[in-house]
Design a protein that fits this description.
- It is a single chain.
- The chain is of the alpha+beta class and 417 residues long.
- The chain has four domains: 8-58, no CATH class; 63-135, no CATH class; 142-223; 250-412, Orthogonal Bundle (hpI Integrase, Chain A).
- 40% of the residues lie in helices and 15% in strands.
- The protein has 14 helices and 13 strands.
- It has helices at 37-58, 118-121, 133-139, 144-156, 160-176, 187-199, 204-223, 250-259, 265-277, 281-284, 339-353, 365-376, 381-388, 405-412; strands at 8-9, 18-23, 26-31, 61-67, 77-78, 84-87, 91-95, 101-106, 109-115, 127-129, 291-293, 296-301, 310-313.
- It has a four-stranded antiparallel beta sheet with strand order 5-6-7-8, with no helix packed on it. The protein has a three-stranded antiparallel beta sheet with strand order 1-2-3, covered by helices on one side. Strands 4-9-10 form a three-stranded antiparallel beta sheet, with helices on one face.
- A hairpin with a 5-residue loop joins strand 5 and strand 6.
- Helix 6 (187-199) runs antiparallel to helix 7 (204-223).
- The chain is flat.
- Mean pLDDT is 84; it is low at 393-401.
């Protein structure tokens, strides 16, 4: 461990305090013209701070830079294959001998280098190093097309896993169309995403959710007059590839109740919330506070889409296990990049371990059970959707928004645990 640096000292035979600043190949000593050490420390403070800043700036460091394929220029440049290139700071336009635009591409890419190696290694130039894909995405200059997604993310205040997924799908799309501009894209370009995800074995509903962020971003840009066509609209085919989920029956719920202590306390609470409210898993992780209406506690969930946004009363079956007041995230969001996906996997393993092995019965089956319980209790359809949220955008999607929370609480208690 390095010792503390003493910047102040007194020379033999002098009563004044001096400052010494040592840097490689250089040493500065200067009188502070005072006998009072406290005053000397005050006078020395800005000099010491400047010295430390200079030392820090001189340390070897990793820098992220943009490495051009062609230097930006207003003049045409010649490519090795005989094409001509017009290079801006972010984009290359390749033209044929007849002057026709052949294609566009990004002008170079992000690169990383180690600078300030001269003092330690005698190297007077930056040394290039390889960047990770994530670092490349962060370093890449934003184009007008990138701004379409950025505007949507800010407009909808999207964060966390959803933001990461939206950015990943956007970067994938740009790779698949080889830098083609959005204004020049058609649905066949958008379908490249569908083909890619289908090749990975994803179901149509999952593909639609992944593409939904780009679809919504372009719709916003169109509404503001920046684009005229949406290449992501209606590109996912309607196919019956969705696994039909079965609701959990009374025997399944008995097995869950008898084995609930095998789960940690947070997962026990999660199961109780899902079972007694019919929430989607992702919605349970949206709970970050509570409100009251006529003394009835409720939470607001379904923030991803307008048709799912709703008030959900906290049922009697779960109240004894909740804090007296929810004043922050009810479930931990920090352990995983996608906490609801991680929770789904280990809750499904829990179901398997306690004997619920039918592949059609999963954690999401608690939502199907809630739907069946409400239906069996005679709950009106519009009240059911007010409690559970609509699955799709429909004319009736807004009908349940005005129901009093105490009325919703009366019906949600019919679900039980």
């Amino acid at each position: 461990m390095r010792g503390k640096t003493d910047y102040l000292f007194q020379r033999p035979g002098s009563s004044n305090w001096w400052i010494k600043l040592q840097s490689p190949g250089k040493r500065i000593e200067k009188s502070l013209r005072t006998r009072d050490k406290k005053e000397a420390e005050i006078k020395a403070s800005p000099l010491i701070n400047q010295h430390k800043t200079a030392l820090l700036d001189a340390r070897p460091r990793i820098e992220t830079v943009w490495r051009y394929e062609y230097q930006p220029s207003p003049d045409m440049q010649h490519a090795p294959n005989g094409e001509r290139v017009l290079a801006s700071a972010t984009e290359l336009k390749f033209y044929g001998p007849d002057g026709k635009l052949l294609r566009t591409a990004a002008n170079g890419g992000p690169a990383s280098q180690i600078a300030n190696l001269e003092r330690r290694l005698g190297i007077s130039f930056p040394v290039p190093i390889e960047l990770t894909d994530e670092a490349k995405a962060r370093a890449r200059p934003k184009t007008d097309d990138d701004q379409v997604l950025e505007t949507y993310i800010k407009h909808r205040k999207i964060t966390g896993y959803i933001e990461r997924e939206a950015r990943q799908v956007w970067e994938l799309f740009k790779t698949l169309v080889e830098g083609k501009r959005l204004k020049d894209c058609n649905r066949d370009d958008g379908r490249l995403l569908v083909t890619h995800f289908q090749g990975k074995g994803l179901k149509s509903a999952t593909i639609e959710k992944k593409i939904a962020w780009l679809n919504a971003a372009v719709n916003l840009a169109m509404s503001e007059g920046h684009l005229k066509f949406n290449p992501f609209a209606s590109i996912v085919p309607r196919v019956r590839d969705k696994t039909r989920r079965l609701p959990l029956d009374d025997a399944d719920m008995k097995a869950i109740r008898n084995n609930l202590k095998r789960l940690g306390k947070a997962d026990q609470l999660l199961v109780r919330v899902l079972a007694s409210t019919g929430m989607r898993l992702s919605e349970a992780f949206e709970i970050d506070g509570e409100e009251k209406e006529r003394g009835v506690r409720y939470v607001i969930v379904g923030k991803k889409t307008d048709q799912s946004l709703r008030r959900v009363p906290l049922p009697a079956a779960v109240l004894p296990y909740l804090p007296k007041s929810i004043k922050g995230p009810l479930f931990d969001l920090t352990k995983h990049r996608d906490p609801s996906d991680a929770a789904s996997k280990h809750l499904n393993r829990f179901l398997d371990d306690i004997g619920i092995t039918d592949p059609r019965k999963v954690a999401h089956s608690l939502r199907h059970r809630a739907q069946d319980r409400l239906r069996a209790a005679g709950c009106p359809e519009d009240v059911r959707w007010a409690i559970l949220g609509h699955e799709e955008e429909t004319v009736a999607a807004g009908y349940g928004e005005g129901f009093p929370v105490p009325l919703l609480r009366k019906w949600i208690d019919k679900i039980g645990f």
